[in-house]
Structure formats: structure tokens, C-alpha cells
């Protein structure tokens, strides 16, 4: 059924006068009358009772008016929704982030600003390790990810846009000799045991620890693995080893845990947003624009 004819039918039904309906539709009366006749022929029934003095709806016309208004409202809504999606104002955006990102202001600032600007977008947030995000982005399961990484972690098909660099801290028991100074040299820790993420977790921190220790002339001795950063902090606070973690986690207060800076310019972790190679969707373009504005204002 032609939606245009339904619009003509609704106009005549509401005006109950072909002349006024034609003026409302900005068309001549004869073509309007022809379109209504064509609609009646299509449906096989009269929709109007016509006389010289008035026009009224038949029972079939009254029933069609209810349905036609609903159909036209749905059609207008669909057009509006499609246009908003094309402008990046509606749809679903899947955002990944590492477990330590909520401790950084950037994630909250970007999400809050984006929500205020694009309230109709469904934001799906997923906590994932960096390598898991790379895989999900490459497979189309994630639109954008907030990742902490090293250069060696770059993945084919994924573009990284650096938005900052986070210093790293060594977490240790407050009674450790190295915990009393302003910073520590990695060479002073050659006889210490370290707590790291297990290999299957997909974070680059174990690789950074290896590099820092190599720079200091030794290989780290791993005494414990833990999948959660807060678990590593607790183990370090218990004196079971030393953990290497982003400085943002200093806000996690566990008794007897001390966060110590490292005297090595390589003790940093890149903070980036990761997206798939290729064209950027309107949804993602809007998100990246908000991110750029928040980063500039930081």
C-alpha cells in the first residue's frame, strides 16, 4: 500500500472536504480525488460517502483511518530513527576498557560527556584485558577499546590512538627497605621476587617488567601470579613479592602497601584508544570527537 495515498486519505478524513484537504496537501483537487479513487479500487471498497453537501467516512474508512495514522506514525518514526543512526545519534556502541581504567579520570569524563551529547545511543561497556580487546575489535565484536599497552602488543587490523602515558609503580610491603625512598632503582631489586599477571591474561605488564629488569642487568624472579591487580596489591602488602602496576591504582588503599616510583624513563605504559582499521562509522566518529574534546580540555 502506497504511504503517499494513505497520507492523502488521512488529510481528506480529517478535513471531510476535498477542497480543504487539497489545499492542506498543496495540490489540486482533481489529482487528490483520483488518488482516493485509486486507493478505494485497491482496497475494493468505498472509504467515503460523497454527496453535494458533505463528505463522511464509511465504516471501512473509519477503521482504515485508525490504522493509517498508526502506519504513518511508524513510518515517520522509522525515517527519523534511520536518519539519527546515520548521524551517529542512535544505535549501539560497544566500548571495552581494562580493569584499571575506572581509576583514571579519562574514562569517566569521556563516557559522561558522550552520554550527555548522545543520550539515545546504547552504550555497552565491557571490562576486558588489552589483548582480548584487540581480538574483539579485529573480529567486529567491539567498536572501541581503552587499552594500556606497549609497542610490541600492537595487533594487525587494529589502529591505536595514543591519548596519554601512565607512569608505573612498584607495589611492596611498607617495611621493605626500598619503600622508604622517593623512588627505586630496578638494579636494587635483582634479588627480589615479583608478582605478575599469568601469561594467558593478555596484559603487557609482564613484558614491561622483563624489559625494566633487562635494562638493569638481570632477569626477574617470578614468585607468584594473580589475575587481578587488587589481588597483587594485597599479596605485595603481605610481603609476598613486588608487583608492577599503573600509578592510577595508588588510590587502592590496603594496609602496609606502598607504591614506589621507578627511576627509569621506560617505566611508563601507553594509554590509547583502539579501533579497527578502515572506515569509521558515524557512531564511532561521534565518540572519537567527544574523546578529542575531553582530551584537549584535560
Automatic annotation (TrEMBL):
Keywords: DNA-binding, Transcription, Transcription regulation. SUPFAM superfamilies: Periplasmic binding protein-like II (SSF53850), Winged helix' DNA-binding domain (SSF46785). Residues 1-58 form the HTH lysR-type domain. Gene3D superfamilies: Periplasmic binding protein-like II (3.40.190.10), Winged helix-like DNA-binding domain superfamily/Winged helix DNA-binding domain (1.10.10.10). PROSITE patterns: HTH_LYSR. GO terms for cellular component: protein-DNA complex. CDD domains: PBP2_LTTR_aromatics_like (cd08414). One of its GO terms (molecular function) is DNA-binding transcription factor activity. Pfam families: HTH_1, LysR_substrate. Belongs to the LysR transcriptional regulatory family. This is LysR family transcriptional regulator. It comes from Denitromonas halophila. The lineage of its organism: Bacteria, Pseudomonadati, Pseudomonadota, Betaproteobacteria, Rhodocyclales.
Amino acid at each position: 500500500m502506497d504511504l503517499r495515498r494513505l497520507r492523502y486519505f488521512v488529510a481528506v478524513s480529517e478535513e471531510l472536504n476535498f477542497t480543504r484537504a487539497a489545499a492542506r496537501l498543496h495540490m489540486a483537487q482533481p489529482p487528490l480525488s483520483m488518488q482516493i479513487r485509486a486507493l478505494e479500487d485497491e482496497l475494493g471498497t468505498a472509504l467515503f460517502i460523497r454527496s453535494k453537501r458533505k463528505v463522511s467516512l464509511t465504516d471501512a474508512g473509519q477503521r482504515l483511518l485508525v490504522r493509517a495514522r498508526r502506519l504513518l506514525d511508524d513510518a515517520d518514526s522509522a525515517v527519523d530513527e534511520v536518519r539519527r543512526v546515520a548521524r551517529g545519534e542512535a544505535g549501539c556502541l560497544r566500548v571495552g576498557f581494562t580493569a584499571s581504567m575506572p581509576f583514571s579520570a579519562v574514562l569517566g569524563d569521556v563516557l559522561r560527556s558522550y552520554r550527555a551529547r548522545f543520550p539515545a545511543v546504547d552504550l555497552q561497556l565491557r571490562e576486558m584485558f588489552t589483548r582480548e580487546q584487540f581480538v574483539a575489535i579485529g573480529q567486529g565484536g567491539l567498536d572501541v577499546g581503552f587499552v594500556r599497552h606497549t609497542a610490541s602488543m600492537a595487533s594487525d587490523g587494529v589502529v591505536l590512538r595514543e591519548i596519554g602515558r601512565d607512569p608505573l609503580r612498584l607495589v611492596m610491603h611498607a617495611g621493605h627497605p626500598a619503600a622508604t625512598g622517593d623512588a627505586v632503582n630496578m638494579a636494587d631489586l635483582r634479588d627480589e621476587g615479583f608478582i605478575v599477571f599469568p601469561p594467558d591474561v593478555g596484559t603487557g605488564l609482564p613484558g614491561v617488567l622483563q624489559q625494566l629488569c633487562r635494562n638493569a642487568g638481570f632477569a626477574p624472579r617470578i614468585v607468584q601470579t594473580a589475575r587481578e591487580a587488587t589481588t597483587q596489591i594485597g599479596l605485595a602488602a603481605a610481603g609476598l613479592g613486588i608487583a608492577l602496576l599503573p600509578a592510577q591504582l595508588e588510590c587502592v588503599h590496603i594496609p602496609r602497601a606502598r607504591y614506589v616510583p621507578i627511576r627509569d624513563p621506560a617505566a611508563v605504559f601507553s594509554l590509547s584508544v583502539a579501533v579497527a582499521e578502515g572506515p569509521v562509522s558515524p557512531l564511532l566518529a561521534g565518540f572519537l570527537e567527544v574523546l578529542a574534546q575531553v582530551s584537549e580540555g584535560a
